[in-house]
Structures are given as structure tokens and as C-alpha cells.
């Protein structure tokens, strides 16, 4: 084998290793919906595939996925948003029957090292409400508008004095 080809193959394998790493998995209530935030560090420009599932009664149920097929009972209630280093699952009309161990699985396209997974146990009575500040962060247009309007608000206070 040509040494140059061997080095190129080795570098490709090393680059593909650990293309993404789940940093944090958290859950909160947003009105009547469950929000599960899967934060990750991405070390590749390859497209990211995800799967949110729940394990209850010793059985895995796929809620929303680009890796496999979602179950019918969740299709009309679940949606996912993706932002830089964050994938969020929203499950509408969350009830105690939706309690269980939620899993976030991430896999970068052409990542031959496997996927990253993280679990969180979700019990409705123990969930906190989603913080207002994190909602602003997720909707950056509101945060930007707020930051841009601060000088105007200060100018109005100065003029009224």
C-alpha cells in the first residue's frame, strides 16, 4: 500500500471519529407541550440525523426521527426544530401517559463510528416550566429586537426628564 494513501485513509478515519457529541439533554414544560432539548457539539459539516424516542413498559417508541420511522401515535403531536448545536423536540398535549425515559440519538452522515445517545427520565409532576429567557434565546429575532430597542427606551426616559 502506498504510504500516502495509508496516511489519507488514517486521517479520514480520525476526522470521522466522534463527529458529534451530545453535551446535554434537558426537558421542560412549555404550556401543555413537552420540550426536550438535545445540545451537542458538532465537529463536522456533514448533515446531522436525529431520533427522539421514549422507552416505556420496556419498549422503545420512536417519536420523531430522520433515522427511522416514527410511530403513528406521535406523528401529529411531535415536531422538531434544529438550530446550531441544538435539536428540540416538541410533544404537544403532554400527559402522564407520555412519561418515560426519553432518548436523543444523533448521527452525522458518513460517520462510521456510530451514533451518540443520551437519556433523560421525564415525569410530568417533576418537570419545570421552560424559562422565559431560554425561549428568547431560541427565538433570536425577539432577543435582537429587545437589544436594539434598549437605546431607544433610554432616550425616551432622558427626554421625559
Automatic annotation (TrEMBL):
Annotated source species: Galbula dea
Protein role: May play a role in cell-cell or cell-ligand interactions during synaptogenesis and other events in the brain.
Locations listed in the record: Cell membrane
InterPro entries xrefs: Ig-like_dom (IPR007110), Ig-like_dom_sf (IPR036179), Ig-like_fold (IPR013783), Ig_V-set (IPR013106), THY1 (IPR033292)
Gene3D superfamilies: Immunoglobulins
Organism domain of life: Eukaryota
Gene Ontology CC annotations of this record: dendrite; external side of plasma membrane; focal adhesion; membrane raft; myelin sheath
Gene Ontology MF, one: GTPase activator activity
Keywords: Cell membrane, Disulfide bond, Glycoprotein, GPI-anchor, Immunoglobulin domain, Lipoprotein, Membrane, Pyrrolidone carboxylic acid, Signal
PANTHER family registered for this protein in UniProt: THY-1 MEMBRANE GLYCOPROTEIN
Membrane topology: Lipid-anchor; GPI-anchor
Pfam families: V-set (PF07686)
GO terms, biological process: cell adhesion; integrin-mediated signaling pathway; positive regulation of focal adhesion assembly; regulation of cell migration
Ig-like domain residues: 3-121
Record flagged with keyword Cell cycle: no
Signal peptide: 1-19
Entry-linked SMART domains: IGv
PROSITE patterns tied to this protein: IG_LIKE
First-listed, main subcellular location of the protein, grouped into a coarse class: membrane
The protein's name: Thy-1 membrane glycoprotein
Amino acid at each position: 500500500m502506498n504510504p500516502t494513501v495509508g496516511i489519507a485513509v488514517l486521517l479520514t478515519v480520525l476526522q470521522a471519529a466522534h463527529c458529534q457529541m451530545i453535551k446535554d439533554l434537558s426537558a421542560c414544560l412549555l404550556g401543555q407541550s413537552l420540550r426536550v432539548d438535545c445540545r451537542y457539539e458538532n465537529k463536522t459539516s456533514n448533515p446531522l440525523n436525529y431520533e427522539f424516542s421514549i422507552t416505556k413498559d420496556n419498549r422503545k417508541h420512536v417519536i420523531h426521527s430522520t433515522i427511522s420511522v416514527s410511530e403513528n401515535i406521535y406523528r401529529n403531536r411531535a415536531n422538531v426544530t434544529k438550530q446550531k448545536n441544538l435539536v428540540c423536540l416538541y410533544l404537544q398535549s403532554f400527559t402522564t401517559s407520555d412519561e418515560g425515559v426519553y432518548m436523543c440519538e444523533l448521527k452525522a452522515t458518513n460517520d462510521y463510528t456510530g451514533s451518540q445517545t443520551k437519556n433523560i427520565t421525564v415525569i410530568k409532576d417533576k418537570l419545570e416550566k421552560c424559562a422565559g429567557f431560554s425561549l428568547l434565546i431560541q427565538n433570536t429575532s425577539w432577543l435582537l429586537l429587545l437589544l436594539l430597542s434598549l437605546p431607544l427606551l433610554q432616550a425616551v426616559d432622558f427626554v421625559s426628564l
